[in-house]
Every structure is written in C-alpha cells, then in structure tokens.
Amino acid sequence: xxxxxxxxQRAPFTLVPxxxxxxxxxxxxxxxxxxxxxxxxxxxxFEGQWIQAALATHGYTYRLTLEAxxxxxxxxxxxxxxxxxxxxxxxxxGILITGAGAAGVFYGLCTLRQMLSSDPTLPGLTIQDAxxxxxRGYMLDISRDxxxxxxxxxxxxxxLASLKYNQLQLYIEHTFAYPGHEVVWxxxxxxxxxxxxxxxxxxxxxxxxxxPNQNSLGHVERWLKHPGYVNxxxxxxxxxDHAGRHRGPSTLDPNDPASLTFISGxxxxxxxxxxxxxxxxxxxxxxxxxQGKSKDMVEELGGRVYLDWLVKLHTNVTAxxxxxxxxGDIILKYPQLVPELPKDVIVMExxxxxxxxxxxxxxxxxxxxxxxxxxxxxxxxxxxxGRADNAIGSIRTAVEAGLKHGATGxxxxxxxxxxxxxxxxxxxxxxxxxxxxxxxxxxxxxxxMAAALDHAIxxxxxxxxxRLTLGLANLYHHVGPDHVNGQVLAYxxxxxxxxxxxxxxxxxxxxxxxxxxxxxxxxxxxTEIDSLLAELGNARMARPDAALLHxxxxxxxxxxxxxxxxxxxxxxxxxxxxxxxxDELEGLLVQQRMAWLGRSRPGGLEDSMxxxxxxxxxxxxxx
Length: 623
What we know:
Blueprint: E1 21-24, E2 29-30, E3 34-38, H1 45-57, E4 61-65, E5 73-77, E6 86-91, E7 94-99, H2 101-115, E8 121-122, E9 125-129, E10 135-141, H3 150-162, E11 167-171, H4 182-185, H5 193-205, E12 209-211, H6 221-224, E13 239-240, E14 246-247, H7 257-270, E15 278-280, H8 295-301, H9 304-318, E16 323-327, E17 346-350, H10 358-368, E18 372-375, H11 388-405, E19 409-414, H12 428-439, H13 441-444, H14 449-458, H15 465-473, H16 488-491, H17 500-509, H18 519-536, H19 546-570, H20 578-599, H21 605-609, H22 613-622
C-alpha cells in the first residue's frame, strides 16, 4: 500500500450530510496518482466504479481489484453496523470503508467523494455514521407544466444519491403517457414507459427507491376538462373556491364506481414500471368534495366519505402487493377517524411553512399506531428564487417532530404551483438541507449552508454561489417574512394592478403578516438583486452545466426584480414607464423560454408562458 504520513489536520472540505461522528487522529494519507480500489466481491462493482469515476475527475487513475492487501482504497462489509451505516478510517496505510451492506459502502464513498480535490492529501480520521430515518426522500412535481428532460432527472438522481437520499417520487397528475388517454397528455411531453424503466434502474444502482406517485382523487383537473372524463367529476360544472372564484372541476366523485375503475386502470398501466413496493396515491386537496354530487352524503357522514374512498384505494393497492401512501391533510380534519385507517398505510404529513404544527399532527398518527412520514418543502415555488430560511425552518420543524413521534421517513417536497416558473437550482437549499437533516438531524444544526452549497453542489472554487443563492432566496424577508406559500413579488407577476390589496388581504386571512411594499423597500430589493448579480460572473463552478446555472439564476432574479418594478408602478411611484417595463418583460420572456428548455421538455412551456399574458395586457392598457 502506498504511504505518505501527514500531520493530523482539519479537513479542507464541508461534508453534506455532516457525519454523526468524525474524529481526527494520527497521520493522514496522500492519494497516489495511480492506485487500486479493492472490492469485497464483484457485487460491489457499481460502488467501485462510482468512486473510480470521481477520482478520475480529479486526475487520479485507479483500477478495481479483489485483492485488498496492496490496495489504496479498501471496501468491506460488516454485519455489526447500523442499517445503511458505514465506518471510514483514513491513515498512513490508506483508506478503509466498511459498510452495512452495499448501501452503507455507497454512503461511505459518497462522503469520500466530497473529500476529493486536486490536492492528494487527506487527513487522518475516523468517521462512524448512520441515518436517523430509514427513508429519506425527495418529491418533484412534474405535473404543473414543467416535465424535466431525462438527462435532468438523471442529474437529479446523482445529486440526491450524493446527499444520501434513498427515495425519489415524481408527482404525476397527467404526465405519464397512459395508452388510450392521449387527449389528456398529448401536449405535455409526459414521461414514457422507457423513461421509467431507465430511471428505476438508474435509481436502484444508486440505492434510491423510485416510488410511484399518482394523484387519485383531487388535482385531476387536467383529466376532467375533457368530455370523456368530466362526468366522473364531483362537480362537472365547476365550483367556487375559498376565495369565491369559479374554477373548473378538479376532484373525482368518490361514490361513482366509474371513478374507481378509471383510477384502477391507471394503476394497471403505471405500476409495472416500478420496482418499489410502495405507492403514493395522493388524495390531497379535493377542493370541491361535498359541494357537488356527494353533498348530501358528506353532510350526513362527514369525513367518512373520504375515508371510504381511501379504504377502496387501499384494497386495490394492497391486492397488488404494495404499501399505500397518501397525503394527510384531509383525514386530519377528522382526527376521530385516524384510528380507523388501515394499520399498514403510510400517512404523508405535509406542511410548508416553518410554523406548521408537525408536532401536534404527528402525535395523532403516533397515538393511533399509524405509520407516517413528515413532508416539509423546498419553498421554491411561487417565489422564483426560493425562500431559504423558511425551507430550512420547515425542514427542521418536520424532522424534530418526526424524530420525537417515530416517523419512518422524511419526504422533502418540491412543487410547481402557477406554471413552475422557478428554475431547477432554486430548490438546492431545500434539497441540501433536507438531505442533511434527514440523515443526521443533530449534525445538520451546525451546517454552514453557503459552504455546503459551494462544495457539495456548485463546486465553486470562488465561494460565491452559496452566498448568492442564500442572498437571493432570503430577499423575501424585505417585503415580509410570512407570505404563505410564496413571495409577494413573484405572486404579483400574475396579478392585475387592482389585485395588490386583495392579494395582501388574502395573505392576512391565511395568517400571514402584512407585507412591506413601501417604495423604499422595493427599491432596496432591486438594489440588492443588482448587487448579487454583479457577483454572479465571478463564480468558478466546475460543473458541465455551469453556464446554464448562471443563466437560470440570473433569469429568476431579474423576474423577481421586475416584480418589484411592477409593484412600484401599481403604487404610483414608478422608476420606469409602462412602455419600458413592457420592453423589459418581452426580453425576459425570451430568456425564460431559453432557460426552461435547458432542462425541461417543450410540452407545458406554452401553458406556463401564458401566465405572463395578464401582465403584458396590463402594460399595454397603460400605453
């Protein structure tokens, strides 16, 4: 084994997730330019190739072997470690990674990958590590116009794996190419059967479970707007939402046998493409349930109408040998019914503000003996650049409650409300912190988020991107930290001039604090965006998509900046005329299309872009 003693030192890297236990001791090791990686058996070939490829990106040439005696990096298995746990020892003789099964070895190698650089010196250390939660997941909404390309999804899987996630869900309403239902998805560029086969295999190699996710009650408006499906709706002629606005039908009639036949047919097609033994059937936010066909029954039976639908789905799902997951927002409105849930379901307790009552809600499931996940969010949607502090706060609140009450998993959710305008990297704060906190909550409390983003995500040698991401994603504090489910300047890009006060009143009704939309505040936001963007060009990201990341962040920030200018115009204190703002908007729309197509399929783009038409019309009316 090659040796090169080093003095014990602190590591020049940030590890994400931070290990449960890390001690620096003794002399370190200097990686030779060429060396060997010893596998305990050929079954760990992928794990060996994973670290082999990482070494190659830093200029090292390593070959794989089964001979441990002369190897520089030795991989081994042990049955006395916690599930998915690993131990890493670095000393003058080399690197030894011992894992609890292939997953444990893989996670040890993920940690080692984050230590690698062009500098061959590694400190002497011992790491002992294992996760807090057996299931650590991320869910991406692919049904609100934006369907990622296959290449983008593969990149996402690699990034999740490097952060020790072991579950991925892709939220589907209509964006799978269901045969016989082309009228619903033909313009959406949906996932295809081949996409799912590739993604499932790619995930399994990286110890990630690709869990199917098909909403099965509410949020089926893309189906019910078509004549062949609308009669299955609870309210085929539409309904009035909580704000008194008329909306098209979005919820199935749970008492119509045709609804169950329809959903079961979707399951027949979708589920064979997944190796997972779990299945998320959704069932959140059935907005008009009880307003239409089931009105009399809901008035008589209350939440039991919803529970009966869940039981029907549970019977269908378990007959397929799968475990059913569902969102917990509706059943918790009827806490007396929680003990009646089938004992093998998994309730997905979701909440996206840092003040969400995860503790109280999780206590209901724990008392009833019902398995559950905690499901915070990335806070990227309706915000363009994200809301970093809220994302971190909601994840901490969720994980604390999950640990206290015995949650079996964490699912960090990432939605695309209102056209999915936010770009891919707007979710990085939530993804990184969610991975850290669900792996080891205690060590995540001291995580340096800027350094974590620079090192584990952006590979930015200049140390700019982490600070820039957090700076942009915390601009929402200037106009009020408590905007429910989004950022007021992003919302206003889809609101007419006379809707500002209505929007703020709506936020107040939901418990949000008053927004600070004074002209001086809005100008301060614009100045800060300009200052942050001035640093963007100095980043040194060692990523193939560095140029795209630059363009995505610039575009999102400029859209938010435009929102501040629009509100200034509404307030009668403009720094730019309507004509100037219209010209600026037209340029931003061109850039929005280009940024979209950098990672997402064309289908859905026009639907998303149509959401800018209201603002364009407002400017034209003022000319």
